[in-house]
Amino acid sequence: MSWFKKSSTMATPPDELLSKQEPQNQESLQTFVAQKPLAMYTIDGQKGSDESLICRSNETGGQSCIKLGFNCVELFKKMQKFDYFCSLPDNVNATYFECRKIQ
């Protein structure tokens, strides 16, 4: 007799969950950037984190931001594919990237 019953359902591995979220993150990024393509975007995230934040200035002087399931480097590369030039700002203490549309 077994004390444990074998489950017919298995938990989804984290890597598989991330791959399912990739298209949603990609679509969210495309939509966000398409709203204001000429804006300057900032990319920020913690080192080693699978999430990062992309922001742009809005009309009221604040910022519009979305959190995506990409690390900073992945988001940096995605923005380059959308024809944005991304670099570190002039501030030597900065931990974020700035991205501007290549025209």
What does this structure look like?
By secondary structure, the protein is of the alpha+beta class. It has a domain at 36-101. It has helices at residues 14-35, 72-81; strands at 41-44, 52-57, 63-68, 84-87, 97-101. A 5-stranded antiparallel β-sheet has the order 3-2-1-5-4, with helices on one face. The chain is globular. The model is unreliable at 1-13 (pLDDT under 50).
Overview in brief:
This is BA75_02014T0. This protein is of the alpha+beta class.
Characteristics of this structure?
103 residues, five-stranded antiparallel beta sheet, BA75_02014T0
- State the end-to-end CA separation: 71 Å
Instruction: Return residue spans where pLDDT drops below 50 for at least 5 consecutive residues.
Output: 1-13
Oligomer: single chain
- Assign an overall shape: globular
SSE order and pairing:
Layout: H1 14-35, E1 41-44, E2 52-57, E3 63-68, H2 72-81, E4 84-87, E5 97-101
Antiparallel strand pairs: 1-2, 1-5, 2-3, 4-5
